[in-house]
TrEMBL record:
This is UbiA family prenyltransferase. The lineage of its organism: Bacteria, Bacillati, Actinomycetota, Actinomycetes, Streptosporangiales. Keywords: Membrane, Menaquinone biosynthesis, Transferase, Transmembrane, Transmembrane helix. The chain crosses the membrane at residues 32-49, 55-74, 140-158, 170-187, 193-212, 240-258, 264-285. It comes from Actinomadura violacea. It is found in: Membrane. Pathway: Quinol/quinone metabolism; menaquinone biosynthesis.
Amino acid sequence: MSQQTALGPAGVSGRGDLAAYARLAKLDIYDYYLGLLVVWALLASAVRWKPQTLGLLALTLVAEVVVVAAMVGFDDVTGYRDGSDAANYGSDAARRRLARKPLVAGTLTEAQALRFSWAATVLGSALWAAVVALAPHRPVWAVVLAAVCVAASVQYSWGLKISYRGFQELFLIGLGVGWTLVPYGLLTGGASGFVIMQAVLFGSGPMLFGLYSNTNDADGDRAAGRITVATLVSAPAHRVFVAAMTGAQVVLVAGATVTGVAPWWFAVAMVPLVAMRLAQLVIGFRGDILRARRIAIHAHRVTVVLLVAADLTAGALS
């Protein structure tokens, strides 16, 4: 009996319908795409509503969605092959929605997932090339960073298998930083300290909720040979690491305000974020990792709302 038949629910064939492909692409996880809202709010009011600006942001959104579809598609194939997805999702399917892993659930075949991922890789690369070609500015750093983000995304769990080589946490924050700085740089030609600070703050959000996933998945990842901080250190040491990364967000906000990189009121505007981060730490330390992860996801989305509001306010006051 094949692995897919054994793991898939009774009576389900790998027919590959649109819903299964949507789950493979993880279209319900849109957190990286929210950075474009921050980019839009950071733009000068004279630029923000230009049709060319909105058009480029829309094209960038499509390019990001397609590249992420390739990334998570390859990730699912790798996780299916090494058994880590079956180990990490099969034991808690009710809370982690086994259907989100269509290979393990048996709603897609490995061949279908691979074809989808390669097609998304080609299309996503072409779309990013179009974004760069149509941009009003093309600073070298933004073009190079865009290429690095695309290449690293596709090889997150495939090719170089970045997430298996000990660079997962760095990738999770780096992609968010890159996908904030690149479109801003292509639209304006540069990036101030205030913009860079917000890119780092935004990028740290996916990294933080990824840390809670890694905590929950440590045993399965370790068995599959996936190197993360959670697989290398003890559970108490990883809790300290999570706390340190959470504290770094708070320090970033406070430091930007104290040094004048951000307006004096910026730290006050971010107080709701600090409260949510403290709540997720307490809940996570008490052992409810998946609930802490959900709070971390919501905290990231609240961060976006707060940054957009702060940027619009800063623009109105300038």
